[in-house]
Amino acid sequence: MVLNSLSGRFLLLTVAFVMLAEVLIFVPSVARFRVDFLLSRLERAQIASLAVLTTDEMIEEGLESELLENAGVYNVVLRRDEARELMLSSPIPEAISDSFDLRDAGPLELVSDALHRLVDPAPRIIRVIGAPVREGGQLIEVTMNTAPLRAAMIEYGLRILLLSAVISVLTALLLFLAVRRLLVVPIKRVVRAMQVYAEAPEDNRRIITPRASVRELREAETTLQTLQTELTAALRQKDRLAQLGSAVAKISHDLRNILSTAQLFADRMEMSDDPSVMRAAPKLVGSISRAVNLCETTLTFGRAQEPPPRLERLSLAPIVAEAVEAERMAAADADISFAEDVPAGLTLRADPEQLYRILSNLLRNARQAIAASARPGEIAIQADEDEHTWTIRIADTGPGLPPKAREHLFQPFQGGTRKDGTGLGLAISAELVRGHGGRLELVRTGAEGTVFAIRLPKGATLLGATLSPG
Fold it and tell me: Kind of pairing, strands 125-130 and 98-101?
């Protein structure tokens, strides 16, 4: 409902305050109108008295009545040359109730007399005293009925109130539109930004970007941006620590077994001259390497936070070529071929370092899966785009994911694709893709191989604005 909104209530308050201001103006305005009305009666009475001054004879009774009727008074008294003279007269229907001297009346007295006349509906006979215009004497005095005066004051007051109502409505409407444009719309944009962020707090692109022109609103947006940034980092850290803590016991057990084996071989090398030491040395190196790798990946995942992606336009082909070349060198002793199907002109918006890490993790998993099968294989990378999405597919001809890995895919320490894997590579890759506003999907897996797809959006509706692919 409009009246329950901020702008609606502001509209009502504006109308009320403008009407209050008009009422405060109304009272002195009506008092001024009353003074002008009485002065006009005095001036008309003075003009009527000129007919008497221009002749030395008595004027006819009919003419006198007509002059008094036109002046709107009962009689006229003019003081000239220190002599007070009744210029025009007619019967007064009742006794004079009040006298008003306009020559030295103060503002408060005039306002009080005006309000008293408005609230008193009974017609009265009053005496009005004033100064003649154009130095036509020292004083002019008339008697008159208050009924025409009160009627004219009411008519004038109604016009003032109607005009005040129109002004207040127009003013309120303009202020309503201004407040809606300057305050309500930006506030709604901030609320929408909070709703969008709440849907996926891990997506860095949903963090609000301050752009309000009003200083206070911009400060609110900046504070919200800081809060969202810290909350996203805290959520990631909490998730990592929770997952890391639940796996500490398993990691400790596995790591102890690996290092125990390494220790036995090391002791044998130190205490024996047996020629078989030469054959045991590679096993020792392998055991230690596995322990180091496990420690490094665990510590990498347990870091405070992944930095938010620095999005920029980049060509995909060079990054794919670099990641493939690194894995090709690592697979030098295995029968693994690599295929790249990435259009040379394909560009996308991403963080180049994080995109390389994503591709490197997926390629490494594919290489290790094929190598573990002890069979020749192929890893293929293919990329394309449509109106809304960039898609990168990594396919291998390995043995496929084991059932446990499928059940806990992208979960650290549970979703490993190899028997001795930790699953951190997939977990980190999925988190980095989410940070880009996209998703990492398992397209298919089986005896014929595995296909993962990285899907990155070309745009996202954030804070009321659309990020276009350009």
Answer: parallel
Q: Are 405 and 365 contacting, i.e. CB atoms less than 8 angstroms apart?
A: no
Contacts of 265 (CB under 8 A, 6+ apart): 280, 281, 283, 284, 287
Nearest-angstrom CA–CA distance, 417 and 143:
112
The tokens describing 370, both together, are: 């094929």
Q: Which helix (H) or strand (E) holds 285?
A: helix 277-301
> Is this model's pTM higher than 0.70 or not?
no
Classified as helix, coil or strand, 24 is helix
Tokens of 101: 């001297």
Q: 10-residue block means of pLDDT along the chain (470 residues)?
A: 65 76 80 91 86 69 84 88 82 89 87 88 91 80 92 90 81 79 82 86 84 82 88 79 61 54 57 62 58 56 65 93 87 88 93 91 90 90 93 93 78 55 74 90 91 88 34
6-53 helix and 61-71 helix, angle to the nearest 10 degrees? 160
Element (H, E) at 164: helix 147-179
